[in-house]
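Try it yourself: sequence plus pyridoxal-5'-phosphate, in.
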Amino acid sequence: MFSERIYNFSAGPSVLPLPVLEQAAAEMTNYRGSGMSVMEMSHRSKMYLSIFEETKADLKRLLKVPDTHEILFMQGGATLQFAAVAMNLIGATGKADYAITGNFATAAMKEAKKYGEVRIAASSEDRNHTYIPSQDKLTVSPDASYFYYCANNTIYGTEWKYIPETGGIPLVTDMSSNILSKPIDVSKYGIIFAGAQKNMAPAGMAVVIIDKALAGKELAITPKLISYKVMIDSDSMPNTPPAYTIYVLGLVLKWLETQGGVEGMEKIKAEKAKLLYDFLDDSALFNGCAEREARSDMNVTFRTTSPELDDKFVKEAAKAGFENLKGHRSVGGIRASIYNAMPMEGVKALVEFMKDFEVKNK
Ligand SMILES: Cc1ncc(COP(=O)(O)O)c(C=O)c1O
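Structure, out:
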C-alpha cells in the first residue's frame, strides 16, 4: 500500500490535479457556507446555478467557443454521443462519412449504421492503426450529412495533427482524450464532443460543443435526453444534470487557468511527450508503437521485445508506484497516458524507471 499518491498513467478515468481533489475534499461537507455538499444541492438552486454558469463560462473562454456554438453537458459518457451524433445529424441526407483510425471511431460508425448509410472515408487499418491518413487520402462525399473522426486514438496512441478539410460538410470529432490539451479552432467544427474522465472530470458525462445551426433535425425516434435541440433549449437541464461532475470540471478549469490555459497546456504536454518519445527513440529495449508523425501527446504506446517482458515491466512499475501502464486489452503492450494532470515529475520519474529497467533486462 502507498501512503503517498502514486503516479497514475491510466487512460481513463485518469489522474486529476491534486489541488482540485484537495479543494473538492475541503468543500465536501459544507460548500462555501451553504451547510451542504454540492452533491446535495438542488440543481435549480441559485448557488448551484452559479457553479454551473461559471463552469460553462470558463470553458467558453478557455476554448474560445464562438457565439454560434453552444456548450452542453450530457450524461452517458462519450459512447452515448456515438448514437447522439448520428440520430441528430444523419437525417439531413441519410448518409455520413467516417474516418476509421481506431476502435472508438469503429464503435461510433457501428452505432451510426443503425440510423443511415455510413461510408468509410479513410482507414488506417492496413497498418494496424499506427498512423493517421493524410488529407489526400480522405474521400469526403459531397452528400454526407457530416464527416466524423476521432481526434486522438486513446488505444493506439495516435493523434490527428491537422483538421480535415471537408468542403463545407459539417465536421464532427471525438476529442475525449485530447480536449483542453491545446487551443482548437472551434468555428471549424459542427460538433466536438468529449467524455469527461480524461482531461476534465470524473466519468459519466460528455461535454458537447455544437454549432447551433445543426440542431433541430433529429430523427423522430431520438430519445429526449440525446436531442441536441432539447439540450440547447433547456441549457443542459431537461432533467437533473450530472451536477457534481460539472462542479469538479469547474475546479479543473480554474486549475487549468493557473497553468496558462490551453496555450500553457500545449507547451507543457509537448515537453512531457518529447521526454518520453526521445527516450523511446534512444532505447534498445523499448519501441514506440505509433508512427512518428502520428504520435499522440496524450497516450504514449510502446512495447519491449516480448509480451512476457511487457508484463514484467508493468508489474514492476506498479510496485514502484507507476500505476495503470498496461496497454489496452485489445492491443496489449504498454501505454502511458500523460494527460494534463500528470505532472512533469511523473514523466521524468517514469523515464528514470524505464532506464533502470532497461539496464537490468538487456
Ligand atoms: C477517444 C474515446 N472515445 C470514446 C470513449 C468512450 O468513453 P465513455 O466510456 O465515456 O463512453 C473513450 C474512452 O476511453 C475514448 O478514449
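One thing you can check immediately is this: The chain has a mean pLDDT of 97.
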